Amino acid sequence: xxxxxxxxxxxxxxxxAYEPSAGFEHHRASMAKWLRKRKLSLQPSQILLTHGGQHAxxxxxxxxxxxxxxxxxxxxxxxxxxxxADLCHVRAEGVDMDAEGIQPSSLxxxxxxxxxxxxxxxxxxxxxxxxxxxxxxxxxxxxxxxxAGALIVEDDIYGVLSGEEQPPLAAIDGDQTIYISSLSKCLxxxxxxxxxxxxxxxxPNLQHALVALHWTAPSFWAELFEFMQx
Length: 230
Prior knowledge:
Helices cover 43% and strands 16% of the residues. It is built from 11 helices and 9 strands. The protein has a 5-stranded mixed beta sheet, with helices on both faces. It has a two-stranded parallel sheet with strand order 2-3. The protein has a two-stranded antiparallel ribbon with strand order 4-5. α4 packs across α10 and α6 packs parallel to α7. It is globular and about 60 Å long. The chain starts with a helix and ends with a helix. 43% of the residues are buried. The mean pLDDT is 90.
């Protein structure tokens, strides 16, 4: 129905043109509305639109790491993290896990031994284990990373779909956490529209990386998504 409506409105001049690299403000406002489902109260200026979650993850690597750096992730981790790390010549080191995901004691030790300043993790329905952190665990992970001066990249790809009520790591500390969401797991894998949320001081470097990786924001999918929310 949304596709039919887009066709009726003769939107080729919008859909086939470059969009601002962060996305039009009204498209980012639609994403902010969507992310309220995850207890995130955001302004459009805090959101960068991406061509899916993988694009957002790649931007984090390119903006925040250099070759031979070490980043931390779950011992059983999403394969896309490993692929990007290899491409960027960055070492991805696994942190021990339990039924709730990353173990705090192992994270603390790995941060100290590696000097890593970037931690990739999924708090809800972790891939591939499906582990989900309790609220207490989420707060502990954020506190450990904050004390070590390490940023968290939270891949909340299944967050909206999960229907769980606990806040994501980004809602606990938005300055410490870079937040990633996407429609691909919640609606359809071919819909390449995601969101990257970060503190104001990180936005310029992340936006630069997004442009280098994929020149323009995903106009077509953003417009379709906006129609779907009407």
